[in-house]
Amino acid sequence: MNDRIDMQLNRLLAEMAEAPPPEPGEAFLARVMADAAREQPGAAARDVLPGLPRGARVLRPVPGRSAGWIGALAEVFGGRGALAGMMLATVAGLFLGVTQPALLTPLYSETPLDSLDLLSGSDNLWTEVAQ
Questions:
Q1: Structural domain tally of the chain?
Q2: Which of 62, 63, 60, 87 lies closest to 73 in space, CA to CA?
Q3: Is 14 contained in some domain?
Q4: CA 130 to each of CA 66, 78, 118, 120: distance values in angstroms, whole numbers, following the listed order
Q5: Are 72 and 96 members of one domain?
Q6: 6-35 burial, b if ≥16 CB within 10 A, otherwise e?
Q7: Which of 27, 64, 67, 102 has the highest Cβ tally under 10 A?
Q8: Considering the domain boundaries, does residue 81 fall inside one?
């Protein structure tokens, strides 16, 4: 029974591999273009979506007006969300560095931080590069 099913499945897959791929329908392509237009900020939605209602808002960048240095900085980091994450990490690091919470003292109280050598094997690396 299983051999017969396997043979039928193999025959069906062979027929499908030889057949030309089906052409996508017009409705499917229209849905794909509508989804693409929604995902692209600043896209000319009226050109792509001619059936867009008259009162619908289409967000476009204002010509001649930049986002300022904060907007440029956000683009360097990959957007506003990434910049917010970097700012949160910076503030958290400053807070932990300045306040030195009591919960962290057991981690470093036994060894003075001045005597801690974090890059013990890097001396040879720096002398090799310098030569």
A1: 2
A2: 87
A3: yes
A4: 45, 35, 21, 18
A5: yes
A6: eeeeeeeeeeeeeeeeeeeeeeeeeeeeee
A7: 67
A8: yes
pLDDT, tens digit, 9 for 90 and up, residues 69-118: 887 888 888 888 888 999 999 999 898 888 777 776 666 666 665 666 66
Tell me the DSSP string of 2-45.
HHHHHHHHHHHHHHHHHSPPPPPPHHHHHHHHHHHHHHSTT--H
Residue 115, token pair as written in the block: 């005597």
The residue length of the chain stands at 131
> Is 124 domain-assigned?
no
Domain co-membership, 46 together with 81: no
Q: Which domain holds residue 90?
A: 68-103
For residue 2, tell me if it sits in a domain: yes
Whole-model pTM: value is 0.34
